[in-house]
Design a protein that fits this description.
The chain is mainly α. The protein has helices at about 5-20, 25-35, 40-50, 55-60, 65-80, 85-105. The mean pLDDT is about 80.
């Protein structure tokens, strides 16, 4: 499904806000990390959206969020609506499930879950 630039900008801004909140940061704290003022963050999260890759990279770095994971979550959001889990949450669930299966079967195993986000399809 083709999306407009405005939809993409808005979705990126909404996701950045969501990640900021997940990380427990206020707009002021994020502004301090980015070296700007709170109103710039508020504008990005609401009216302006985020459209430049450089800005997304800066936000990801300030939020200590993986750029590829951000883009994957954004792609899911744009293709299906709001995403429900992050790659880390998926990894944790798979890891937990594999360990539980090993225990049930009486096996000793080492679990190493790797998700290549380049191959994920929403």
């Amino acid at each position: 499904m083709k999306r407009s630039k405005e939809e993409a900008k808005k979705a990126a801004a909404e996701l950045m806000k969501e990640i900021r909140i997940e990380k427990g940061l206020t707009q002021d704290q994020l502004a301090d990390r980015l070296g700007c003022n709170r109103s710039a963050i508020a504008h990005s999260e609401t009216d302006g959206g985020i459209s430049k890759v450089e800005t997304i990279v800066e936000f990801c770095n300030a939020l200590e969020t993986d750029f590829v994971e951000f883009l994957t979550r954004l792609a899911v959001r744009l293709s299906q609506g709001k995403d429900t889990v992050s790659l880390e949450q998926i990894r944790e669930k798979l890891d937990r499930g594999a360990k539980e299966l090993c225990q049930r079967e009486g096996l000793q195993c080492i679990v190493n879950i790797v998700i290549d986000s380049r191959t994920l399809k929403p």
